[in-house]
Please model this.
Amino acid sequence: MALLVLFTGNVFSQAPAPEADPEAGRRLYTSFCARCHGINLVSSSGAYFDLRTFPRDDKERYLKSVNEGKRAMPAWKGIVKPDEMEAIWAYIGKVNNWGPSK
Ligand code: HEC
Model:
């Protein structure tokens, strides 16, 4: 992991931030989120927010809720890094067929 960070750091240091990677997001989602929100965003329980219905134009709300937590959901700030949250957002968009991110 440290090597990967070094490597991408060198390659992208002068370039604009690369597009968030939905495949990386899928892996992160599976580790951190799927136990509540379900595989492929399909939750077994209505107690957890159905991420298939999340408004695509409200990324601000996504970031706020995920960073700070919301009621029964723990805060992820400090556990999930900002670029990882972007990747998970890209993954949610991919599953929901939102098309290119705005
Ligand atoms: C311990 C179970 C649990 C885990 C793990 C979990 N969530 Fe949640 N999440 C919830 C619950 C419960 C809610 C509904 C909160 C409410 O509105 O009462 C929720 C709601 C949300 C919402 C909607 C918030 C809103 O503004 O309405 C988003 C987005 C979300 N979760 C994303 C994530 C992401 C991304 C992860 C992984 C980093 C994750 N959650 C992990 C339990 C969980």
